[in-house]
Amino acid sequence: DSGVTQTPKHLITATGQRVTLRCSPRSGDLSVYWYQQSLDQGLQFLIQYYNGEERAKGNILERFSAQQFPDLHSELNLSSLELGDSALYFCASSVGRNQPQHFGDGTRLSIL
Amino acid sequence: DQQVKQNSPSLSVQEGRISILNCDYTNSMFDYFLWYKKYPAEGPTFLISISSIKDKNEDGRFTVFLNKSAKHLSLHIVPSQPGDSAVYFCAASSTLIQGAQKLVFGQGTRLTINP
Lengths: 112, 115
Hints:
Oligomer: heterodimer
Number of strands of chain A: 11
Radius of gyration of chain A: 13 Å
Distance between the termini of chain B: 38 Å
Number of strands of chain B: 11
Structural class of chain B: mainly beta
Structural class of chain A: mainly beta
Order of helices and strands of chain B: EEEEEEEEEEE
Number of helices of chain B: 0
Radius of gyration of chain B: 14 Å
């Protein structure tokens, strides 16, 4: 158990819809990271938050957004969903620089 | 542009022998490297890391070697056990970018330990 909690585990929805994925980091970790794992792309960095502020962005689509709340949990919002958004979405947290990131078990998003 | 490469999609090793997983990187800004293990339906589990100021780090059965001049790192597992069967990911990051520590992952190597 990494201590990182992601909900829901599975999400099935239709094209054009909007979903919210939730992540609770390990106790004491201020940084939260979101990654996407699709079949053909491997694990790709989306966005990082540190203590409520956006710190780094990867190849995140404009239809996607995230935030980190005062209690340090984070939400990833995906809107106008397309078939290609079907993937595993992982959240990770870390305590600081040069410290390993610990991953949750992911949310599997299926777009029908 | 794949900055972290694991050229072997799969590796099969006999139980008790040494498993060696390899990883190459191209970005000279990377200075922190990690190995993760992943089972199906679970998230990646951190195994071991190494900073660029070192060339070796050991933790129990796991040892990571870093060759900066070759931009190459490897993970050695000795002795290999059936529970080590999983997909192994190499990842790299750069601490030179203030505050940002995104991980760049390789494509993974599926390790199978045969009894």
